[in-house]
């Protein structure tokens, strides 16, 4: 069976091989920018794969030219309101005033969802091509294995927008502390080769081989016993958590919201208005 909508609007949910589910972001006209609906549908798709005991491995891919351009900064306030959906976490209160509402919204749909997918019990493989920018990293970093094609490019431009990195602060583990700082400070776009050299991606393959290579890898993993796969995943995740990963991430999330709040006090908006991200948010054409 190929990729099917299966009741979703913004993603496809397919079963390309026995015991393998392939979830595909499907807003190609928006470079798979993540609106609130897409994030909720992605979360529901992971839940569906978790509850289906025949599923052993989940592939996460993107339709169109790019994996994901990040969070959809052009969403209307109504579309961006998570109150439209059944809450997944327990912070709630998304419409509260001051910094309370935005903190709780991002705690739910950004940091909360990425952390939840990082703790998804079964093996996950990100299949990345084209741009994987800012919020795009928050979909691939929670995955266990990352395969990308030669055209893949990675960037976190949050510092340019006046905040210390995206809401899921995996940078030091993905890149090492020194390169994580360079990645954040410069907001430069890094290519597949550099990401591979740093150990951030497992494999780089030709664009035309990406889907097949990833599916072969998923098939090989899916031959193993599911309970052992879940146990192995949790064992490695425990190593990061025992070293303080969760505490570090929560501390960065607080700094992230300190900066959102600072920008709001200084500029009247949550990000620095002099950034490309702010120009996009204002609906103006992105300058060169
Ligand atoms: Zn934020």
List the helices and strands and how they pair.
Blueprint: E1 11-17, E2 20-25, H1 36-51, E3 57-62, H2 100-118, E4 124-128, E5 131-133, H3 137-140, E6 145-149, E7 153-155, H4 171-175, H5 177-186, E8 190-191, H6 192-197, E9 203-205, H7 210-222, H8 226-242, H9 245-267, H10 276-281
Helix pairs in contact: 1-2
Bound molecules: zinc ion.
Write up this protein.
This protein has 288 residues and is α/β, with parallel strands linked by helices. It has one domain (4-287): 2-enoyl-CoA Hydratase, Chain A, domain 1, CATH 3.90.226. The chain has ten helices and nine strands. The protein has helices at 36-51, 100-118, 137-140, 171-175, 177-186, 192-197, 210-222, 226-242, 245-267, 276-281; strands at 11-17, 20-25, 57-62, 124-128, 131-133, 145-149, 153-155, 190-191, 203-205. The strands form two sheets. The chain has a six-stranded mixed beta sheet with strand order 1-2-3-4-6-9, sandwiched between helices. Helix 1 (36-51) runs parallel beside helix 2. The longest helix is centred in the C-terminal third of the chain and has 23 residues, at 245-267. The chain is globular. The termini are far apart.
User: Which hetero compounds are present in the coordinates?
Assistant: zinc ion
- Output the CATH homologous superfamily: 2-enoyl-CoA Hydratase, Chain A, domain 1
Low-confidence stretches: 284-288
Separation of the first and last Cα atoms: 43 Å
The secondary-structure class comes to alpha/beta
Please write the string of helix (H) and strand (E) elements.
Answer: EEHEHEEHEEHHEHEHHHH
Arithmetic mean pLDDT: 95
**Annotated CATH architecture:** Alpha-Beta Complex
The number of distinct structural domains comes to 1
Helix content: 40-55%
Cα radius of gyration in angstroms = 18 Å
Q: What overall form do the CA principal axes indicate?
A: globular
CATH topology: 2-enoyl-CoA Hydratase, Chain A, domain 1
> Which CATH first-tier class would you pick?
Alpha Beta
Strand order of the largest sheet: 1-2-3-4-6-9
Question: Count of DSSP E strands?
Answer: 9
By DSSP (H or I, 4+ residues per run), the number of helices equals 10
Quick one: biggest sheet? Answer: 6 strands, mixed
Q: Percent of residues in beta strands?
A: 5-15%
